[in-house]
Amino acid sequence: MPKVGMDKVRKPQLIKAVMQVVDEVGFHSASVALIGRTANVSPGIINHYFGGKDGLIEATMRSVLQALSLSVRRELAQTADEDIVGRLQAIVRGNFDPHQLDSSVVKTWLAFWAYAMHHPVLFRLQHVNEKRLLSHLRRELKRVLPTERADFVAKGIAALIDGIWLRGALNPEGIDSDLALAIITDYLERQLPAELFDLHQRLSA
Amino acid sequence: MPKVGMDKVRKPQLIKAVMQVVDEVGFHSASVALIGRTANVSPGIINHYFGGKDGLIEATMRSVLQALSLSVRRELAQTADEDIVGRLQAIVRGNFDPHQLDSSVVKTWLAFWAYAMHHPVLFRLQHVNEKRLLSHLRRELKRVLPTERADFVAKGIAALIDGIWLRGALNPEGIDSDLALAIITDYLERQLPAELFDLHQRLSA
Amino acid sequence: MPKVGMDKVRKPQLIKAVMQVVDEVGFHSASVALIGRTANVSPGIINHYFGGKDGLIEATMRSVLQALSLSVRRELAQTADEDIVGRLQAIVRGNFDPHQLDSSVVKTWLAFWAYAMHHPVLFRLQHVNEKRLLSHLRRELKRVLPTERADFVAKGIAALIDGIWLRGALNPEGIDSDLALAIITDYLERQLPAELFDLHQRLSA
Amino acid sequence: MPKVGMDKVRKPQLIKAVMQVVDEVGFHSASVALIGRTANVSPGIINHYFGGKDGLIEATMRSVLQALSLSVRRELAQTADEDIVGRLQAIVRGNFDPHQLDSSVVKTWLAFWAYAMHHPVLFRLQHVNEKRLLSHLRRELKRVLPTERADFVAKGIAALIDGIWLRGALNPEGIDSDLALAIITDYLERQLPAELFDLHQRLSA
DNA sequence: GATGAATGAGCCTTCATTCAT
DNA sequence: AATGAATGAAGGCTCATTCAT
Questions:
Q1: Among the residues of chain C, which ranges form H helices?
Q2: Which CATH superfamily is domain C61-204 in?
Q3: Is-contact D91 D154, C-beta < 8 A?
Q4: Statement: the CB of D33 is under 7 Å from strand E
Q5: CB of B70 within 8 Å of any CB in chain A?
Q6: B147 CB contact with strand E at below 7 Å
Q7: Is residue A174 less than 8 Å (CB to CB) from chain B?
Q8: What per-residue confidence (pLDDT) applies to A4?
Q9: How many other β-carbons are positioned within 10 Å of the β-carbon of residue D198?
């Protein structure tokens, strides 16, 4: 009697194990045997569900990307459409979601970037993700800035998000999401009309 | 007597080969056999000069870090001490030196970050490097901003530098150093007194 | 489900292959590749079962030691407790058991000794073995000789056993176990009271 | 101006280094690089003087064999021809010469035996050595015992010599040459006419 | 669906040997 | 005579993958 729907159980279980192993020993030491042991399954099963190690790696990367995308969309969904400052901050908060700051997720991201450089599928995935952040930011900024300026500021905010994230990831003290929000809000205050902040104040109250 | 002083020739030759291989096939496929072949030497020589693959990797990382440090110092040396804006821009230019934007260097940096997470020696090296950027920025900013504010702005600039660099590295179109300078100069203009820019104008003329 | 209980099959199979290879090409040429080929398994399996070549070597040495110990105990078990001469001869016969004279076993012993000098674990194993022979001999001799004399004679018999064995191992004509028994029995006749031999005669009849 | 007669200096120097290295790290870890370093010469020189590692090993073995032969001959030369017991003891003393009990010599012997099993040249050398001991013993014994008996006793003495030597080599407490002489003298007393010992007493006085 | 024994290619490393100097 | 840089084959080991159960 074969258990049905084991996909739903095994796949996330293994993806989580990959991140845990990457956290503990690094991507370069993440063997199928170790991942299997961490997930309490046999190494052979990875082939069964993912068609090989590469499939598992790819699925893990997709999972990380989706989690980020979900975080941002969840934050945006909770913010009024008129509150442009709030929406920009929501995008920032989504990128600094506690889950994204988890050690295993952070290390998986770092490994992901290095790995993606030589893996067309992952590279494209990552590029889509990168453009999505920019597109989210631009959408809001265009409502209050000329297109060209909106592009410019969007790139600034995106750089601040990724830069703060990266520097925190490489720092023993970790990522300080409050400081991230403070730096980026300060940036916004100097780029956007003051009225938007008054509006934001009123809507948040 | 055998050839002497080959250290000076072989070590840079092998370090360069590492970066070339990382560029071509990725860090995870950079075997000593391939590195040796790329450098036109036998694989065994790596042990002779670096005591093993790890020694070569470490030496490569140190080389990359030193090159960056040198770029920044070179740019700073060419800028007048009174020209605070110019000095901040020099730091930015140093970080976006053409050599740092070379594909093989970019990929080595990415690999370096992921690898350093699980390699205490490299982690410390990388951390020193990270703090140095902040310290360079802070030194200039403190001359015109209150300490606390200088710290805050230094973190912003550092984040912009690393963020723009990272996003460019992950982008098929590469890193646009002119745009980087524009974004960061724009940031500075909104953080620093206008007189500093007038002074900069005069000194650069 | 995969085949279970292969330990019981593979381990002795590989240990036997080690001895065969040592016999054929010598300890210094016994590579895991050759051992694997001899056992008709892949070289990787040695890691699976023994954790590495050293583990296999160690297991082989233990096996050789245990076989010797077993031979002696088997011979002793077949001899009446009162028949002291018979028991001493049983110990000798155990040491010259046909299995111990097999070319592959002989060469493994020789390699073992040289190797054990620089391998603490094996050295201790070998030392325990060496003391056990002495202890077996002493136990019987003390029943008919003063303690000090029993010690002295035990050392003589042990030396004769090992000396005859060694000289036979290094001799193209091999080990002559009948001669061994004759030489040692002659030694005993000159060290022990004649009545013991009369008793032995009667009990053997 | 090439130095002449360096053979006389370099060869013994390297042979000694082999034994020292075998003592320190074991035969299986005695690389030419390590031997060269120990002898304070470059690794390449081994080829120059011995035509390769094997030549050096072979020369070392020959050296060990010759030293033993010399020890025995030296002891015999100091003993009166009529003193048969004394001459037999001289042979024993030669075999337990302090130089033969040196740790590096002991370990070289052990390695030698294991290695000789698969090296025809060394095997023959070692066999000649083995026969020489027997022949020395037999020559003396035949003067007082029937041929067949002399053969038998010679084998007993040879076995005692090698057995005591081997057991001492494998024992952390080392080889006790006084005990060796005591055990073998005891053996002789029970195999040879008492008058020979009286004669020995008188001649030694 | 799941196991883990088994494979064999590929890795890093060691090492005897060669050779330009 | 002597060096030691350089080679490249061979070693032990790791690991993704396969497959009988």
A1: 7-25, 32-38, 45-50, 53-77, 84-95, 98-101, 103-116, 120-141, 147-169, 177-191, 194-204
A2: Tetracycline Repressor, domain 2 (1.10.357.10)
A3: no
A4: yes
A5: no
A6: no
A7: no
A8: 55
A9: 11
Query: CA of A16 vs C1' of E14, distance in Å?
Result: 39
* Domain B58-204 top-level CATH class: mainly alpha
Give pLDDT tens digits for C137-195.
Answer: 999 999 999 999 999 999 999 999 999 999 999 999 999 999 999 999 999 999 999 99
> Would you state the structure tokens that stand for residue C81, as one six-digit string?
């407790």
Displacement of CA A9 from its chain's centroid (Å):
23
Mutation target among A96, A121, A162 for the B interface, most CBs of B within 10 A: A162
Q: Which positions in chain D touch C118 (Cβ < 8 Å)?
A: 25-26, 28-29
Distance, CA of A189 to chain centre: 25
Domain boundaries, chain C: 61-204
Distances (CA, A) of A140 to A76, A129, A149, C39, D142: 11, 17, 12, 70, 114
Using the Cβ of D110 and the Cβ atoms of chain C, whether some distance falls under 8 Å is answered with: yes
Looking at chain D, list the stretches that DSSP marks H as alpha helix, in order from N- to C-terminal side: 6-25, 32-38, 44-50, 53-77, 84-95, 103-116, 120-141, 147-169, 177-189, 194-204
CA atoms of A69 and C39, how far apart (whole Å):
55
Express as a percent the part of chain D with pLDDT over 90: 94
Q: Is the pTM of this model over 0.90?
A: yes
Positive or negative, the CA dihedral C119, C124, C125, C131 is: positive
Strand F at less than 7 A from CB of C115: no
Q: Which residues of chain A have pLDDT under 70?
A: 1-5
Residue D140 Cα distances to B64, C184, D164, angstroms: 79, 22, 21
Length of chain A: 205
Chain length of chain C = 205
Q: How confident is the model at residue D2 (pLDDT cuts 50, 70, 90)?
A: very low
- The CATH class given to the D6-204 domain equals mainly alpha
Query: Which residue from D minimizes the CA distance to C181?
Result: D156
Q: Is strand F less than 7 A from the beta carbon of B4?
A: yes
* Residues from chain A contacting residue B96 (CB–CB below 8 Å): none
Q: Which residues of A touch B155 (CB under 8 A)?
A: 164, 179, 183
Q: Candidates 1.10.10.10, 3.30.720.10, 3.40.190.10, 1.10.357.10; correct CATH number of A65-204?
A: 1.10.357.10
